[in-house]
Design brief:
Structural class: alpha/beta
Largest sheet: 6 strands, mixed
Number of strands: 10
Shape: globular
Distance between the termini: 21 Å
Number of helices: 7
Order of helices and strands: EEEHEEHEHHHEHEHEE
Helix content: 25-40%
Strand content: 25-35%
């Protein structure tokens, strides 16, 4: 089960926020608070706005109204030059892994660190070792992505997401391309990161079995709304 976070400072806070995809409002009057260290699911049908919320959190989609904040960033006042700094404080895990296929696992991870101003070669080497150990992939550092299974590629993608020790990970259908057993392994890894590191995780999924097997707070997106599902009110 996902660990319940201690109540603290919200890492995500939406109040009466309108979420857009371009000029079109996808989610109206969103109220959502995610505390530091919480695990939260976003679920709903295709096109219901789940990914639009993720894109809003990374500064890709604008907020059209209301209040919206991620960590120390006010999304309603976000300037283009602030977006790279916002994204450094967020780890993102994608359904299709999005690894660089022309370089090794180690070089994939080094690329991210160098792009976020890491300079010291020894510190870079040690950080790569640390995150590979965290995801159980230390022996795969010199493999190319095409030499890895889907589950292994996703583990590397998760390692990439924690390189800069973010307070928040956004996981967009991270088990969508995986079989059931492999998906369970990825869920256990994400929950382990959530518990041991205190990293808040917002995970998009349509897989009801995962939500049942690994219960946590659930927000359901439908009919231009996204509201928390409460079993006692169902």
């Amino acid at each position: 089960m996902a660990q319940e976070a201690e109540k603290g400072t919200p890492i995500i806070e939406f109040r009466d926020a309108d979420i857009s995809n371009g000029d079109v409002t996808i989610i109206e009057s969103l109220d959502m608070t995610v505390e530091e260290g919480e695990f939260v699911y976003l679920t709903g049908k295709v096109g219901s706005g789940k990914t639009s919320i993720i894109r809003t959190l990374t500064g890709e989609n604008p907020v059209l109204g209301g209040t919206a904040r991620v960590g120390r960033f006010d999304l309603t006042q976000l300037k283009k030059k602030q977006i790279p700094y916002l994204r450094r404080e967020i780890g993102v895990v994608f359904q299709d892994f999005q690894l660089l296929m022309d370089r090794t696992v180690e070089d994939n991870l080094r690329f991210v660190l160098e792009a976020t101003d890491w300079k010291d070669r020894e510190k870079i080497r040690q950080r790569i070792l640390d995150v590979l150990e965290a995801v159980g992939m230390t022996r795969k550092a010199y493999k190319m992505p095409h030499q890895l299974s889907g589950g292994e590629q996703q583990r590397i993608a998760i390692a990439r997401s924690i390189l800069n020790e973010p307070g928040l990970i956004l996981a967009d259908e991270p088990t969508g391309n995986l079989d059931g057993e492999t998906a369970d392994g990825i869920m256990r890894l994400l929950l382990d990161i959530n518990r041991k590191r205190g990293t808040a995780i917002v995970m998009v999924t349509h897989n009801r079995s995962i939500i049942k097997d690994y219960p946590a707070r659930v927000f359901v997106c439908e009919d231009n709304k996204c509201t928390e599902w409460r079993p006692d009110e169902a």
